[in-house]
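Try this one yourself first.
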């Protein structure tokens, strides 16, 4: 007690202990000014809520009633007495989102000059309630004066790469609002899926919302206009503005698949199933493109009352525009120097249209290239240099780059997010501009890109990182370790609440789980390992091809598997599913677990060479931990089968991902030997390298012998590609060779 009191007197805000009731006050984001009072207010069924009579105030009252009932089980009185809860508009509370909250044994008062402030006061009050149900609830006495440091505190969800149901989004809006994040940026269209119903263009959702995956299954979904209205309304009730993003002119393949006449080539395109940056973009030289986009934006603007419309504008390769007669004609007619000028022309045209409808354009920082109008808001993702350029150009900015929460949990920790200071740069030149133009920084946003996120693992990427983000932007105060330690204590006090909301939050600084496979010492089976980010994480698995459930067999750190075949593994914690199943196919063959040597070792940035003989075949995701890789060197591997062995076939897989500079080898040679000195060449192959396709694919080089072969050593040599066409950027350096799984039958 004495220690807590001292801490309180010294100004530490973690534990505020009043004289009468010992109650912990732990609020995220921490209010700007907070002072513990004496005693507590006893809330019970006789407590009523007094509030202004306007519609929004009535909504806020009903929101608070529901929240108190859900959390404490107490149904507040419908009548108003003295000594209850009072909400009041008070112009002396300065600031659009500011509020004052006073809790004394005689009652609770929330004052603000706006309904936004009143609502945030309500959200803070909720954080003072106990978690347990009871006939009454003690709310610790406290005086709070609070307002955010930044007006824009956003979360972005990419629903294009993976689709999220309305119920998922509503759950997140509840959580975002609880932590006073006030903007939901809804990234509604992508190469891999168009997700918003547009009445005038039905194929956007009948065609563009669906893709055929590599296994032939169909994946997709979209939001009807009624869904969109429902989300906007749900968010509004929770003080959250929804900003729609319709990507253009890039990241639009799903739209071009629906209406190929919008592309430069006018050729049919499938909705892509792999990730990356695609060369097919909207044809700027075709007037029909602008007609289409304006018609789409017209419907978007009827659905989203937000004064802002995000139009993307990022990652727009100019290849198609360079080859397109109508795009080139437009460029010359307009006297534009190059295709960057065309991009700028395109954005300014769309901006003019939005301005005519009283909307402000937001775009990713590429829209600065070729010149941007200063009224556009620039979302900065590539770095401080772009922030500096935008600020010097007079634009207002939103900082997103440091908060990409699709990043692995160990690469962007809760601490990293807390410690990021968006008002400064480590580059002195950028720092002086950023500090001088502080007023143009609207705030920041945490985007969740969904290449590897889905409705089951998204919460582990969002939380608790978004709590650090929310406090960073609300407070913008100290970003040092002392401040972080204080935050972390309050963060830990939030976990029981997140548990009660059934949130599958992740660890603070390590992955939820990493699965790996090793061949056991006797080479007659495998060990499946789980490196767990939580001690209470359970790995449920099946070996019959079905999806695991919470009743499937479980293992903690490892399990022995004797049979080849497919094992599906799914992480669970506290009864919540944490991800989609990881599927691993174990293949038995003569090379399994044998020793392998290399003329040049594989790169330490990817998996060790032993993955070539673990019986697990890599998939097109080259980060899946199954690929060994060589940078600017050749693969020359020798497998030792320990004794002369009869074999019938040899195969190995290579990855092709030209956009990531991963190319198929120029030539592959299989040889065998009984003594390791004298070699017999069995097979050579020269795979076709297609640099024009951005598709990622795995190609297996397969040799099958009609006659049995006896050998102890098998050598596989694969030479990298060194003579690349000059059009391939950066030529023949920085070329990766990715290999996985040598199978010997
Ligand atoms: C982006 O990450 N392409 C904005
Ligand atoms: Zn064109």
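Now uncover the answer:
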């Amino acid at each position: 007690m004495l220690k807590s009191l001292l801490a309180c007197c010294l100004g530490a805000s973690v534990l505020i202990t009043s004289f009468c009731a010992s109650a912990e006050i732990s609020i995220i984001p921490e209010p700007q000014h907070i002072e513990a009072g004496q005693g507590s207010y006893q809330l019970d069924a006789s407590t009523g809520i007094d509030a202004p009579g306007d519609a929004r105030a009535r909504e806020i009252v009903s929101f608070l009633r529901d929240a108190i009932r859900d959390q404490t089980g107490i149904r507040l009185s419908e009548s108003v007495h003295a000594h209850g809860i009072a909400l009041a508009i008070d112009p002396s509370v300065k600031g659009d989102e500011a509020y004052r909250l006073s809790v004394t044994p005689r009652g609770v008062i929330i004052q603000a000059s706006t309904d936004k402030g009143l609502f945030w006061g309500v959200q803070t009050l909720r954080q003072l309630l106990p978690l347990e149900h009871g006939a009454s609830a003690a709310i610790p006495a406290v005086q709070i004066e609070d307002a955010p440091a930044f007006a824009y505190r956003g979360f972005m969800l990419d629903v294009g790469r993976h689709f999220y149901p309305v119920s998922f989004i509503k759950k997140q809006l509840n959580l975002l609002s609880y932590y006073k994040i006030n903007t939901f940026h809804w990234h509604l269209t992508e190469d891999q899926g168009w997700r918003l119903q547009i009445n005038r263009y039905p194929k956007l959702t009948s065609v563009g919302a669906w893709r055929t995956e590599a296994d032939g299954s169909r994946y997709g979904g979209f939001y009807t206009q009624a869904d969109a209205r429902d989300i906007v309304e749900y968010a509004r009730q929770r003080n959250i503005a929804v900003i729609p993003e319709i990507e253009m002119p890039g990241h639009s393949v799903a739209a071009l698949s629906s209406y190929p006449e919008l592309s430069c080539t006018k050729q049919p395109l499938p909705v892509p199933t792999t990730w990356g940056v695609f060369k097919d973009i909207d044809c700027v030289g075709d007037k029909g493109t602008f007609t289409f986009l304006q018609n789409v934006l017209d419907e978007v603007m009827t659905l989203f009352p937000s004064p802002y419309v995000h139009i993307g504008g990022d990652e727009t390769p100019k290849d198609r525009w360079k080859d397109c007669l109508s795009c080139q004609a437009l460029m010359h007619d307009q006297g534009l120097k190059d295709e960057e000028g065309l991009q700028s022309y395109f954005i300014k045209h769309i901006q003019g249209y939005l301005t005519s409808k009283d909307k402000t354009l937001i775009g990713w920082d590429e829209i600065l290239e070729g010149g941007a109008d200063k009224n556009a808001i620039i979302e900065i993702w590539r770095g401080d240099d772009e922030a500096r350029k935008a600020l010097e150009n007079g634009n207002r900015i939103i900082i997103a780059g440091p908060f990409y929460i699709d990043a692995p949990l160990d690469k962007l920790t809760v601490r990293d997010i807390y410690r990021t200071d968006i008002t400064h740069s480590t580059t002195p030149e950028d720092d002086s501009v950023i500090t001088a133009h502080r007023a143009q920084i609207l705030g920041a946003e945490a985007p969740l890109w969904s290449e590897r996120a889905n409705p089951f693992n998204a919460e582990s990427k969002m939380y608790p990182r978004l709590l650090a983000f929310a406090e960073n932007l609300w407070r913008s105060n100290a970003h040092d370790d002392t401040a972080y330690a204080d935050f972390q204590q309050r963060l830990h006090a939030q976990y029981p609440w997140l548990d009660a909301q059934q949130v599958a939050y992740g660890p603070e600084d390590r992955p939820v789980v990493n699965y790996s496979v090793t061949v056991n010492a006797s080479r007659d089976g495998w060990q499946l390992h789980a490196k767990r980010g939580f001690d209470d994480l359970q790995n449920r698995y099946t070996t019959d091809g079905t999806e695991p459930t919470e009743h499937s067999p479980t293992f903690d750190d490892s399990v022995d598997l004797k049979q080849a075949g497919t094992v599906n593994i799914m992480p669970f914690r506290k009864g919540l599913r944490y991800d989609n199943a990881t599927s691993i196919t174990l293949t038995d063959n003569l090379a399994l677990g044998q020793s392998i040597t290399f003329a040049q070792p594989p790169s330490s940035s990817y998996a060790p060479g032993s993955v070539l003989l673990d019986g697990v075949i890599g998939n097109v995701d080259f980060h899946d931990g199954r690929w060994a890789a060589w940078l600017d060197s050749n693969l020359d591997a020798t497998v030792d089968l320990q004794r002369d062995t009869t074999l019938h076939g040899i195969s190995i897989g290579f990855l092709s991902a030209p956009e990531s500079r991963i190319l198929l080898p120029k030539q592959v040679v299989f040889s065998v030997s009984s003594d390791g000195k004298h070699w017999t060449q069995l097979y050579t192959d020269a795979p076709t390298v297609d640099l024009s396709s951005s598709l990622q694919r795995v190609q297996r080089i397969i040799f099958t012998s009609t006659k049995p072969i006896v050998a102890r050593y098998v050598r596989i040599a694969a030479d990298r590609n060194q003579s690349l066409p000059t059009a391939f950027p950066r030529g023949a350096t920085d070329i990766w060779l990715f290999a996985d799984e040598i199978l010997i039958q």
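Discussion: The longest helix spans residues 481-500. Confidence is low (pLDDT under 50) at residues 1-23.
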